[in-house]
Amino acid sequence: MPLYALVPAAGRGERFGGPKLLTRWKDREILAHVLVTLCGARAAGLLAGIIVVHRPGDEAVAQLASEYFAYPVEVRDPDGDLSETLRTGIAELRLRDSLLDRSAALVCLADQPMLRLDVVQAMIHAWRNGAAAVRPSYRDAPGIPGHPMLVDRSLWSLAGELRGDHGFGPFLERRGIRIQTVSVAGRNPDIDTTSDLQALDPKQSVDA
After folding, report:
1. Nearest to residue 89, comparing CAs of 101, 79, 77?
2. Residue 81, pLDDT score
């Protein structure tokens, strides 16, 4: 059952004030933290591959993706929002997908460097047991919809109906499609500003 990670990495990072995904935190770039975890999932046989959707001409993000043996793909619309980024990624997945196998996309936000392998494992376990859509519920962030978001191939066609800077989660809920949640420890916050990044570890300086 092939499963690919899909990493939307085409945002402008305007609230951050610069190239957010390439900002170093601890020992590597924010995006690299996400890719390291996904590489671990791939090495464990949980993922068939990793696709990183980036802005046209963003050679730095494309190169970073390639360093981790991920597939860099340019978003089709240079002014596209998250929904367009997801449509681009799903279109790429369809080129790689085998119609003979059940498959899914694990949508991992590029600005969540605290992504963990055990969370990925728990979500894939739920999918393998029949769930069509899965997301984590972090015990240290109750009431906040968690990421990543796992979407079975049977739901990919709905990507064409996504609009604006919104992903699958809110859309599936509006359509009444059940999203199974798995309870996991910790948290996995978005990094939208330099203050968000600093809050992860107050003793760690932010190196843009």
Report:
1. 77
2. 86
Contact present, 52 and 73 (Cβ < 8 Å): yes
- Tens-digit pLDDT profile for residues 40-81: 999 999 999 999 999 999 999 999 999 999 999 999 776 668
Which of left, alpha, beta for 133 (phi over 0: left; psi -120 to 50: alpha)? beta
Distance CA 138, CA 121 (A): 14
Q: What integer pLDDT is reported at residue 203 of this predicted model? A: 53
Q: d(Cα 77, Cα 96) in Å, to the nearest integer?
A: 21
Q: How many CA atoms lie within 13 A of 99 on its CB side?
A: 0
CATH of the domain spanning 3-198, picked from 2.130.10.10, 3.90.550.10, 3.30.360.10, 3.30.450.20:
3.90.550.10
* Residue 207 DSSP code: B
Name the stretches of the chain with pLDDT < 70: 1, 78-80, 97-100, 202-208
Q: Shortest CA distance to 38 belongs to which of 25, 47, 27? A: 47
Backbone angles phi, psi at 89, to 5 degrees: -65, -40
**Which has the closest alpha carbon to 158: 169, 142, 146?**
169
Q: Pick from 47, 44, 19, 162: which is nearest to 108 by CA?
A: 47
